[in-house]
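Researcher: Good morning. I'm working through a list of sequences from a screen, and I'd like to move beyond sequence-only analysis. For each chain I'm collecting a predicted structure so we can compare shapes side by side. This is the next one on the list. No need for commentary yet; just the structure.
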Amino acid sequence: MVPSHGSGSICYRFNIESLNFQAAGTAAMKIKRNLLDIGYDPMIARRAAIIAYELEMNLVIHGGGGLLEVKMSPKAIEISARDEGPGIPDVNLAMQEGYSTAPPQVREMGFGAGMGLPNIKHWADVLDIQSKVGEGTSLKAIIYCFPSEWVS
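Model: Good morning. Structure tokens for this chain:
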């Protein structure tokens, strides 16, 4: 985890290793803890942790590892992931619940159920996925931070 500051925001970068299931989830836990320590609403921190976890697992399982970044500001939390993996041939298909390209050994460990991208979409206010076969994938999820009294 490498923190940096600038323009009223705090940024963290995590290098995620391919197939390192022992470390998987560590970045998401640190992100949630940092958000709570800073004073973000617990539901905002929960949403960010879920998104970060799903992205982290996608980097571990599918992307050959990659970079997970979080940018925290008073207005929004941006969580992004980049990899140089095989890319997603059909993003619309990958967004369907239950669709998975996880290999059998990963499924035997209880991962790869095909809920990662749909879960990210559910918890994000904005989701952008760019993927090119043979070049990799980049994804950015944004959570807007409104005072709890604005949320109905």
